[in-house]
Amino acid sequence: MNIQRKYSLPNCTLLLEGLSDVTRAAHFQEMRPELSILVNAECYLSGYNQPLTGGREFFESLVRAVSGYAQEFLSSVPNPQAHNQESELVEFQKIDSNRHRLIIHSEGSPEGFDHSNNSKRPPIEIDLNTVQLFDLVEAVDQFFADSQTLPELSLELQPVTRRYGGASQALIRQAVPAAVGVSSLAVAAIAFNLIPPPQMRPPQPKPDEQTSSTTNNITPPASAAATPFAAATPTPTPTANTKPAVKDLEALLNTVPEITDPSQLRALNRQVYNQVHPAWTNRSGLQQDLIYRLGVAADGAIVGYKALNKEANLGVEQTPLPNVLYNPANRAPISNEPIAQFRVVFTTKGVLEVSPWRGYARTPEVVGTKITDSNIVKGLNQKLYSTVRQTWSGTPTFTRDLKYRVAVNKEGVIADYEPLNQVAFDYFRETPLPKMFNDIYGSNVAAPNNKEPLAHFQVIFKPSGTLEVIPWRGYQ
Length: 476
Description:
25% of the residues lie in helices and 21% in strands. The protein is α+β, with helices and mostly antiparallel strands. Strands 8-10-9-11-12 form a five-stranded antiparallel β-sheet. It has a four-stranded antiparallel β-sheet with strand order 1-2-3-4, with helices on one face. The longest helix has 20 residues, at 56-75.
């Protein structure tokens, strides 16, 4: 069986194609198949139409040169591993502080780049900026974190002497604004002799588990090192005392408190749905439901996910999860923040299901201050009915009641709305609620306005065209 592994960054993508050794894979039929025989490696770089291609020798030389040059660049100490023309197909040369020349000798030369037809082709030379360089470093990092791809291939890094590391903070700043991942952090630390050379291969994962998470105590790329399909985003510059990334969602959950309050879980449930639902654009082609466990911070940021069945492990690219992980460049790093857990199912029918991982311990309540004066609530009830009735037109195509919770402020302006049943999710565009909300806040998925007291109502759109608005009595 032909196997592909893809490690994607904004400026670089590594694509590996190969086979599984049947003598070794016989005991792992339920796991994500192991790519143990590399047939072809392709490296796509932004700004170049053709990939760099080659076999195993090319790929091994590439990862050695990338890792060695990253160490040299961050430490300013020459590393022969990055410039070995005699025994390596790939080498690097530094042009200046933001330009780096990638050189591929004849055996690794791909078609599509300029070269002569002589039997010994001249080397390919490609100039990278620092962002491209560290995207390439991060792609290599993702490969080394994937224990199901060429598991026998390891990265051997040697620390340079401490006397060369005095300017470590200034030198690391050379990487700005590059996206620096786990192996590049390890390269930096080794370059300054701050930590011993690490074992870059993580422990073997359990069967059917595909994990991705952001990290505790650092600001990593949005991709998880343990998820080869996740895309990275630029991150703030690491410092020499940055701690290694937490690569597993369960490892993250073991280090932070868990959010269990039903009312908070209910609010976060909506935020997760509002992030994932519009991002799931291609809903066809699923042969089985894809089930995941999500970790979510108190502000709704999705900080990690984990596949719960084999299909989810193999089909993560068919979901928007890699793209909705929070971008640490736009948010403070996760550091001992409470985390909520959710079960997310991408069904074969194209329906998204989101629910708390452990369910609700009791019936949740609406969070925020509420308007309780009966006369004010009665007046707001009538005003909401009139507003919705005047803007609801057309012939309904749904056959079941659409039920929503709608909140308004003391002026009767809509401040929040929430579908209460699945048909309300499916047919929300046939109601005026999203337009009313969008006209005020500029987005249909904007955070609810809960900074002032609100009156809450249940609004029911019936297939017959009848509208009902009654005071909120709580979740059923």
